[in-house]
Specification:
Blueprint (H helix, E strand, L loop, with lengths): L8 H18 L10 H14 L6 H13 L7 H8 L22 E2 L11 H8 L8 E5 L4 E5 L2 H19 L4 H4 L19 E2 L1
Parallel strand pairs: 1-4
Antiparallel strand pairs: 2-3
Helix pairs in contact: 2-3, 2-5, 3-5
Length: about 200
């Protein structure tokens, strides 16, 4: 994007949106997501923030689309961080109680807007995600990778392994040790049952 000196922020945002619509409209392909184009943008922004690298896009998109189709909450950390206005290495239990349409731990459906810029690859993954039964993934900080599963008990085991790896690498002074019981990651939350979640 090219900008002029002194250009105000509002005009920059308007132009960014127009150019993005023109570009992403021109490269759009038939989609299997079942979402509107704007909803695809929203989910692509979440996929971008959740993925460790572009090899994760397809599976992360599949997880979130499966949750949407099951009327489960998305349970995405970056959406809560967007609502908080800052990034935490690990969210706290109290963060998940934040009353915000961007808190998709408490609210079912997509947040109202994208939460970040996203790549064409992330958008392509949303538009044509693989057909899987995946519902969960956990990030292992020590391996810099995501582990996926369709089973909540297996997801809990994967989270326990990731947690143990973190403590083993960083020792007794690790954040997990110092703030044990405050992080929501253990036990990892199951997406909220449809009858208990608020609608976005």
């Amino acid at each position: 994007y090219r900008y002029s000196a002194g250009e105000d922020s509002a005009s920059i945002v308007v132009r960014l949106m127009a150019e993005s619509r023109a570009h992403r409209g021109s490269v759009s392909a038939p989609t299997t997501s079942g979402l509107t184009p704007y909803e695809e943008w929203i989910l692509a922004s979440i996929v971008e923030k959740e993925s460790v690298n572009n090899r994760d896009y397809d599976r992360v998109a599949s997880v979130f689309l499966n949750r949407l189709r099951n009327r489960q909450t998305l349970g995405s950390c970056p959406t809560v961080e967007y609502a908080l206005g800052f990034h935490r290495p690990f969210l706290l239990f109290r963060d998940l109680e934040l009353d915000s349409p961007y808190n998709v731990y408490k609210r079912r459906g997509l947040p109202p807007t994208p939460i970040a810029f996203f790549s064409d690859d992330a958008l392509a993954a949303v538009r044509n995600a693989p057909d899987t039964d995946l519902l969960f993934f956990v990030y292992d900080w020590t391996l810099s990778e995501l582990t996926f599963t369709s089973s909540y008990p297996e997801h809990r085991r994967n989270a326990e392994v990731a947690r143990a790896n973190f403590v083993a690498m960083y020792g007794r002074e690790s954040m997990y040790r110092k703030y044990e019981g405050l992080f929501y990651e253990w036990p990892p939350p199951d997406p909220v049952a449809p009858d208990t979640a608020q609608e976005n």
